[in-house]
């Protein structure tokens, strides 16, 4: 991946975001998992970022996103991915308690 530039900076940001439902319930199964995967891809592309990896597990979701400007807060990224979604996604993700974030992307999820 190449570095991006703004008027006053050069950056290459990598975000690893993990969404977990309350009590790690296994709610992301079958058609819900497929729907969420397609939905997250569409939301990230809409903002002009690059989704380099997504893993939907029964009890959590991993997103690896590249190309987010350093002045964009992580809370804004999560809001763009989740809150701007449709009613079905908000209903599915309404049980989220926390977001675990790290600046590095692990080699394997």
* Shape designation: elongated
- Please summarize the sheet with the most strands: 4 strands, antiparallel
Q: Share of helix among residues?
A: 25-40%
Order of H and E elements:
EEEHEEHHE
Query: Which stretches are poorly predicted, pLDDT < 50 over at least 5 residues?
Result: 95-109
CATH fourth-tier homologous superfamily: Transposase IS200-like
Distance between the termini: 20 Å
So how many helices?
3
Spatially, the strands of the biggest sheet line up as: 4-5-3-6
CATH architect. name: 2-Layer Sandwich
Mean pLDDT: 77
Brief overview:
This protein is an alpha+beta fold and 109 residues long.
Describe this structure in words.
The protein is α+β, with helices and mostly antiparallel strands and 109 residues long. It has one domain (7-102): Alpha-Beta Plaits. 30% of the residues lie in helices and 31% in strands. The protein is built from three helices and six strands, in the order βββαββααβ. The strands form two sheets. Strands 4-5-3-6 form a four-stranded antiparallel beta sheet, with helices on one face. A two-stranded antiparallel sheet has the order 1-2. A hairpin with a 2-residue loop joins strand 4 (50-57) and strand 5 (60-66). The protein is elongated and about 45 Å long. Mean pLDDT is 77; it is low at 95-109.
